[in-house]
């Protein structure tokens, strides 16, 4: 393994042709107010987690993107504000049917960019070809599901309610200007799980791609431009302090849709001068535990814990980030787990069956090594022979046993390939961990006895927002509610919940008398209002 890791980065000639891109790619275009503009100012360099060997040196520079200034980013905000025009803009006043047409057009144009986006995803964040394709396709499916959910929502609202002498129609209305920022691990999907519902409900958007995974958004600029009225989608690039702070400080953002760290979310929220005007939709940190009971199905546990802790190298907010295993099966579990992890295929994102790939965050291998060293110095044991072996951006998964609360890895979110294992004899130990944790996203429990599982389910559902039985933690299917307690989330993001999160219930009400009945009937029959309407989208 040592030798394989030493030689993990390919020669230029070894990169398969269809994967290659004409690097460096200098992304100089941006979209504001329906215009694709050319940026001539400062730029930020983009480095890939994949190093390419050429003439005995390694290169990973793959391009650049605009480092915009405050002035330009405020122009994006003004464009979004004008497009919303206090709810009177073309986009928020459109019928749902018309908005759906725009989104469908966007989806059609987006599909044409699949190859380009997938390739850039591999190069920018090191995600495997299979997972990059999956991310793209899942996003398209998410958009289609959102359209269906919107139709359902609209159908349910296309009726009048008469109660206590009042005739009313209750619908959902947009909130205003949304600032969307997704994370690097799902740079496309998680950005779109807020961007699409925000747009669908009639909001306008300023959107900033994540710090890593920026270039992959550039093939979509034309699709935004050609699908939506001007100013509805505006894309900004650059350093958060320079381009995001002024937008938040303006007080003109109505919804902050952010997926990332608690630290950044707190800074952004505090920058807004009118906290009650701002709604936050946040996907934050997590430290999801697996709790393995003595009578579990062993093979299934090992399989689920590997995908749960190591899919995309453990860089998922839903990843299993700590494993509690019953003392009586601990040794057998570790032995099997180590055996399987050591067999995982390592390599470049395009390699067949690859599972472990290089990590995109700068200095991540060093950061992970620090966790391992801290744990070992406090009594943990490194269980697998290749654990923690590294080469530049590559880090082989490290399995740590005998982990205790004195160690950083016990509490902190590693967001990478380290699997801390804690043994227990009293089930209260993992339950106390969950109760005392700052996080509350999900948990996985593994066992066979229905009574034991039922007790755990009933305890954990009041601590986290999804309890997975005999399965790893995950977000999908995307129609299921995705949220968290404590420092893990604000707001819920399933396909249908997201439509609710980016809108507010609004109603129009009339006293039930003859003259009002006549007015209501006329408005509906003559189709004079988009809101007060019983039109039905089929
Ligand atoms: O990073 C967090 C993602 O929402 C997780 O999604 O469970 O489908 O990988 P996933």
**In whole angstroms, how far apart are the ends?**
58 Å
Question: Which CATH class of the largest domain applies here?
Answer: Alpha Beta
The CATH architecture of the largest domain: 3-Layer(aba) Sandwich
Indicate the radius of gyration in whole angstroms. Answer: 25 Å
CATH level-4 homologous superfamily of the largest domain: Aldehyde Dehydrogenase, Chain A, domain 1
Helix residue percentage:
25-40%
Strand order of the largest sheet: 15-18-19-14-13-21-22
Number of helices: 19
Low-pLDDT stretches are none
Strand count, sense and barrel status of the largest sheet are: 7 strands, mixed
Average pLDDT level: 97
Oligomer: single chain
Strand content: 15-25%
Q: What is the CATH third-level topology name of the largest domain?
A: Aldehyde Dehydrogenase, Chain A, domain 1
Structural class: alpha/beta
């Amino acid at each position: 393994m040592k030798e394989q890791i030493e030689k993990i980065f390919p020669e230029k000639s070894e990169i398969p042709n269809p994967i290659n891109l004409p690097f460096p790619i200098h992304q100089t275009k941006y979209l504001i107010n329906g215009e694709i503009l050319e940026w001539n100012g400062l730029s930020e360099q983009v480095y890939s987690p994949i190093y390419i060997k050429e003439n005995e040196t390694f290169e990973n520079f793959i391009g650049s993107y605009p480092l915009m200034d405050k002035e330009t980013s405020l122009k994006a905000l003004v464009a979004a504000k004008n497009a919303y025009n206090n709810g009177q803009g073309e986009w928020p006043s459109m019928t749902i049917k018309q908005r759906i047409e725009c989104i469908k057009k966007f989806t059609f144009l987006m599909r044409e960019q699949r190859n380009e986006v997938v390739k850039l995803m591999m190069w920018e964040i090191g995600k495997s070809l299979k997972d990059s394709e999956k991310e793209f396709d899942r996003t398209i499916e998410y958009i289609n599901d959102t359209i269906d959910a919107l139709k359902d929502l609209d159908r349910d609202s296309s009726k009048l309610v008469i109660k206590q002498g009042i005739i009313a129609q209750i619908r959902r209305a947009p909130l205003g200007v949304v600032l969307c920022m997704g994370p690097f691990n799902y740079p496309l999907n998680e950005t779109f799980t807020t961007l699409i519902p925000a747009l669908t409900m009639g909001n306008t958007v300023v959107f900033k791609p994540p710090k890593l995974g920026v270039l992959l958004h550039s093939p979509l600029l034309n699709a935004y431009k050609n699908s939506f009225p001007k100013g509805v989608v505006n894309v900004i690039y650059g350093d958060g302090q320079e381009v995001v702070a002024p937008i938040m400080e303006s007080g003109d953002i109505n919804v902050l849709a952010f997926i990332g760290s608690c630290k950044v979310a707190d800074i952004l929220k505090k920058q807004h001068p009118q906290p009650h005007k701002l709604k936050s939709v946040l996907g934050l940190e997590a430290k999801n535990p697996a709790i393995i009971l003595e009578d579990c199905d062993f093979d299934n546990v090992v399989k689920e814990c590997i995908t749960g802790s190591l899919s995309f190298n453990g860089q998922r907010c839903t990843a299993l980030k700590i494993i509690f295993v019953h003392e009586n099966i601990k040794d057998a579990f570790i032995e099997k787990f180590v055996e399987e992890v050591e067999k995982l295929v390592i390599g470049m994102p395009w390699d067949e069956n690859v599972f472990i790939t290089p990590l995109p965050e700068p200095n991540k291998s060093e950061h992970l090594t620090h966790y391992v060293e801290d744990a070992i110095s406090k009594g943990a044991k490194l269980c697998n022979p290749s654990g923690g072996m590294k080469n530049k951006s590559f880090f082989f998964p490290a399995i740590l046993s005998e982990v205790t609360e004195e160690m950083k890895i016990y509490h902190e979110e590693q967001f990478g390939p380290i699997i801390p294992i804690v043994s227990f004899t009293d089930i209260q130990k993992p339950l106390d961990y969950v109760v005392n944790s700052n996080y509350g996203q999900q948990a996985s429990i593994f066992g066979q006895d229905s009574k034991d599982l039922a007790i755990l389910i009933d305890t954990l559902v009041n601590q986290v927002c999804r309890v997975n039985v005999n399965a790893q933690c995950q977000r999908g299917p995307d129609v299921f509610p995705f949220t968290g307690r404590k420092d893990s989330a604000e707001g819920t993001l399933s396909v249908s919940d997201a439509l609710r999160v980016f809108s507010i219930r609004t109603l129009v009400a009339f006293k039930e008398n003859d003259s009002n009945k006549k007015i209501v009937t006329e408005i509906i029959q003559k189709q004079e209002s988009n809101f007060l309407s019983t039109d039905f989208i089929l």
